[in-house]
Specification:
CATH class: Alpha Beta
CATH architecture: 3-Layer(aba) Sandwich
Radius of gyration: 12 Å
Strand order of the largest sheet: 1-5-4-2-3
Low-confidence stretches: none
Helix content: 25-40%
Order of helices and strands: EHEHEEHEH
Number of strands: 5
Strand content: 15-25%
Number of helices: 4
CATH superfamily: Rhodanese-like domain
Shape: globular
Length: about 100
């Protein structure tokens, strides 16, 4: 499985970022530019998954890792963000609410 750190994400990547946390988690604060597609609703929103390479983030890295594994098996070029939004916030990086 492909993965990156939050530092690598923050350094800038020219690719979409999907946040798979639940809507209330996303609304409380997320990485700027992230799009919310909750893991629990992913099956109903497969048509919204980018055709190009993209990154996947959650709170700590577990849910996003499972999503990356599942989508990679379907042929998507997905990369997990290790440490997730929790580590992003702990590092003091900006969030959108």
């Amino acid at each position: 499985m492909q993965s990156i750190t939050i530092a690598e994400l923050r350094a800038g990547r020219d690719r979409p970022l999907i946040d798979v946390r639940e809507e209330h988690e996303f609304a409380a604060g997320h990485v700027p530019g992230a799009v919310n597609i909750p893991m629990s609703m992913l099956g109903d929103h497969l048509d919204e998954i980018p055709a190009e390479p993209f990154d996947v983030i959650c709170q700590a890295g577990g849910r996003s890792a499972r999503v990356v594994e599942a989508l990679s098996a379907r042929g998507h070029d997905a990369t997990n963000v290790e440490g997730g939004t929790g580590e992003w916030i702990a590092a003091g990086y900006d969030v959108e609410v």
